[in-house]
Amino acid sequence: MSSAVLFDRYGTLDELYAADVPVPSPGPGEVVVRYTAIGVNPIDWKILRGDLRAHVPLGLPGGCLGVEAAGVVVDVGSGVRRFRVGDPVIRHGRPGTYRTYEAVPASQESDELTAQPGRFSAEQAAVLPVAAGTAYSSLRQIGLRAGERLVVHGASGGVGLATVQLAVLTGAAEVVGTASAHHHELLRRLGATPVEYGDGLLERLAELGPFDASVDCAGGTQPTETAVRLVDDPARRVTIVADPQTQAAGVPYLEHVPLELASTLDLIGHSPFELPVTARFPLSRAAEALTLGRKGGLGGKIVLIPEA
Question: Which whole-number Å values give the CA distances from 175 to 111, 288, 293, in the listed order?
């Protein structure tokens, strides 16, 4: 049997329950993956609440959260040539990874599985798709070029940390990141100039400007105001938070690029890159992990570990 955390209707964390489900068999073009680490993200509780039901339809009852994980191929269906039993892989895309085993389409066109580079541990690989993939698409959307100056709001979150590092790899002349003071040392280590949140943020950033582009990973009034005031070209602003402030100011919302994770891994190559994992929970305690994630301010990622 396979362990899973499921829900039968949209609602609160109280809807989640642990279940034993059959280990799937692969259909044509599919592989079965046994997950060893699963990423936890804000989109998970948004899906659970039903906020995204128009865009991310789920089959209920028996819905399953989780849009990223790392694992090992344990069975291969007919017609699959990309993967073999024993291959480490990264799963990304549609919801369904809060489980131990899953049958996943294996084709490159489906864009749900990517080979896991050997340099990354299972935990590191599991948290790459959402954070690093989103960061990559953000930088592509604003067209960041070598020698330019970038401001990143919410730089100590998963997407923010990835944006800082990918911008440095792109050749940015300077990356300025807004974050709470206790995250500043981490940002310096990753190559950014940290600036503290709070009153006077616009003035503090203006002293470091001008900026060629901005990536907003936080949303809200201050990031939106500074993006509009300090980046002249509207096309060179992007937000990953579609809140009333960003919408009213016309800050463009992120559009993900095809084959996002594969392109991200190509950019990273063998360069230093890290997304700190700051909390780990057994899969059966997914509700606790989601509760911690909603509090924010972790300066890293949360992973679920499926029980053996």
Answer: 30, 34, 26
Q: What is the largest CA-CA distance in the chain?
A: 61
Per-residue pLDDT of the chain (308 residues; tens, 9 = 90+): 899 999 999 999 999 999 999 999 999 999 999 999 999 999 999 999 999 888 888 889 999 999 999 999 999 999 999 999 999 999 999 999 999 999 999 999 899 999 999 999 999 999 999 999 999 999 999 999 999 999 999 999 999 999 999 999 999 999 999 999 999 999 999 999 999 988 899 999 999 989 999 999 988 888 899 999 999 999 999 999 988 888 888 899 999 999 999 999 999 999 999 999 999 999 999 999 999 998 877 778 999 999 86
Q: Is residue 258 situated within a structural domain?
A: no
Indicate whether 6 and 118 sit together in one domain: yes
Residue 80 lies in a domain: yes
CATH number of the domain that residue 296 is part of: 3.90.180.10
Residue 43, token pair as written in the block: 């989109």
Domain assignment present for residue 255? The answer is no
Instruction: Give the dihedral sign, CA 117/118/119/120.
Output: positive
**Under DSSP, is residue 182 helix (H, G, I), strand (E, B) or coil?**
helix
Three-state SS at 272: coil
266 falls within a domain: no
Quick one: which of 110, 41, 112 has its CA closest to 71? 112
Parent domain of 112: 2-127+275-305
